[in-house]
Request: fold
Amino acid sequence: MPFEIMGENLRNYRKKQNYTQEQLAEKAEISAVFLSQIENGKKIPSLETLAKITKILDISMEQVFSERQTKQTNIDKRFMQLLQKRSDTEKLFIFDIAENILSKISNEKITL
Reply:
C-alpha cells in the first residue's frame, strides 16, 4: 500500500533527523497522535500537511513514496539485528570480510 510506505518513510526520515513525533507534529501544526497514525498508515494527511512535513524534513514527495527507501531501511535493520548478538571480535571479523568482498567487487567491476 502506498500510504503504508509513505508512513514508514516519513518515520524513517524523522528518526534520521532525530525528531520525536511530538517535535515534528508541533512544527507541522498537527497532533502527535495524528502523526503517529500517518506513520502507521492508518490516516492519510492532506496535501498541505504532507507538504509541511516534507518541508520540515527537507525531503521530496518522491522520497516519501519511494519503496526503495523502505526496502533499504529493512535491509539496514536486518543487518543491525544480525550484528547485535555478536561480540566486538566477531563484528571486526565480519567487517574485514565485508571490506575484502567490496574491494574485490570494485576491483573486478563485478555487478550483482
Notes: The chain is about 75% helix and 0% strand. The helical segments are 2-16, 21-28, 32-39, 47-57, 61-65, 67-84, 88-107. The chain has a mean pLDDT of 87.
